Amino acid sequence: MSPRFRCTLAVAGALALAATGAATPALAAQPHAESPGATQADPLRVATFNLSLNRNAPGQLVTDLSTGTNAQARTVAEIIQRADPDVVLLNEFDYVEGGLAADLFRDNYLEVGQNGAPAVDYPYVFVAPSNTGIPSGFDLNNDGTVGGGDDAFGFGVFEGQYGMLVLSKHPIVTDDVRTFQHFLWKDMPGALLPDDPATAAPADWYSPDELAVMRLSSKSHWDIPVQVGRQTVHLLASHPTPPTFDGAEDRNGRRNHDEIRFWADYVTPGQGRYIYDDAGVRGGLNPSQAFVIAGDQNADPLDGDSVDAAIDQLLGNKRIVDPRPTSDGAVEAAALQGGANATHRGDPAFDTADFADTAPGNLRADYVLPSRKLQVVDAGVFWPVSSDPLSALTGTFPFPSSDHRLVWVDVELPRAGR
């Protein structure tokens, strides 16, 4: 645990005891206030947090964030304030055109100290559309009807539900951002397209007409260059579909695998030639660039329902470092809950999500994976043990914040010119 984080937690604990989220998409990546961008004498802290700030109807998130009184929003904001990342990807933050929800979250929650935690300012924000809730016009789940969340390009009952948001203390190089919302699944060589088990033909769950429009990303994939002093770090952000909620065809499990594979190919020289972004530009990331892959990948290395080795495509990549962040709270939770956790092969210290104990149990689902150009200094998962006053922020089901935990990694950037 870094000194900065340890100090923040210590102060927080004392205070608590004393008180006993085809066409070029619409983008928003603008300063919240006039700011030259932070300098970076300390390591760069990058985090991902599926904060479950999604809502059940369009406009509901804006309503909930319009005042500073929403209990869940205050809790997830406090977690972010306690961790104090320099750059953070928020999953399950409903997309609202123009970034209104992001502005409200910053104004009314992050820039207001929560429960004694210091306020945090993120002058730069990036939001873009998500495939969730966008009607495909096809019966993608083959249930005989067209419509609803399961027949959208990404599961959602309205457009933008379960979207993504990036907040940064450092300038985002807006002109160089790449989004891959419209990349077609069929255009990935060797894609694990799902097969209809009722027929003899291979990979035929989707019809040719459906494959002609079926997008790979259940939300989107974003390459967001962040300017840190004189250097640039590419935040590669995504949120692959859960590998469940399907049948024997495993359409979601296979899609999860290929959504993860996208980044593995993107950062591997020679492997990303087939990739094209929403502006039509082809190719993967320049090998000279430093990057951090972040997001709720919905895949555990050993347990859960994901396709075997799905996350190993990243964890085993020679250009990627796995900092293996841990928490004592995850170990305690697995022991207390038992159930499916008792049969897991993976070390519970690495868990980042508190799921149903009957199945699949707690899993490592959320990742911050730097490139080898960045030196890992520290890493952790915000999951306090029950004796820590801050455990009230994570809690037990029904959770006051989210069933996922914030994951952070501190990295040092290479010196300019090295």
UniProtKB/TrEMBL annotation:
Lineage of source species: Bacteria, Bacillati, Actinomycetota, Actinomycetes, Micrococcales
Alphabetized Pfam families for the sequence: Exo_endo_phos
Protein name, per record: Endonuclease/exonuclease/phosphatase family protein
InterPro entries reported for this sequence: Endo/exonu/phosph_ase_sf (IPR036691), Endo/exonuclease/phosphatase (IPR005135)
A GO MF label: endonuclease activity
Keywords: Endonuclease, Hydrolase, Nuclease, Signal
Domain Endonuclease/exonuclease/phosphatase intervals: 48-404
Natural source organism: Microbacterium salsuginis
Residues making up the signal peptide according to the UniProt record: 1-28
